[in-house]
Amino acid sequence: MKKFLPAVVRRSTKYQAGVAAVECALLLPVLIAFLTLGFFTVSIFWHYTMAQKAAQDAARYLSTVPVAEMMTPASARAAGDLAQEIIRREIAEVSSSSEIGTLETFCDTSNCGGNAAGTLPTTVRVHFLISMFDPFGLVDTGWYGLQITANYTMRYAGN
Where are the beta strands (DSSP E) in the chain? Predict the structure, then answer.
């Protein structure tokens, strides 16, 4: 009986020598896929938060433009252009893999500078679209990338 037990133990360990390598080979692609999906999801939320923050900063600037500048269409148009430049710089600073598509600044319902001379807007709104591409190349986001829209509206403080 004493000779029988060690032979069984030896035989079972002999057949299980490569089991860990086989398990690793089978599970490693699944784990890599889950990690890739997790990183990509975090990247989407990060780009969305970055876009909303840029829209908020640009709208905050537009809402605090002095009344004298908002009364003339040329100055209001220049303020709208500066708000667009704020967005471009913030997006470029944080993410080099994103491209800005549509970028519009509104004073009430028309583009800034489109209001009649001597009228003040009640609200200012910033709207833009960015295309996010996977910086690691792990997920195919298509030819145009993943489209993220940012939109932020504030009351004009000069009223």
Answer: 98-107, 110-111, 123-132, 146-155
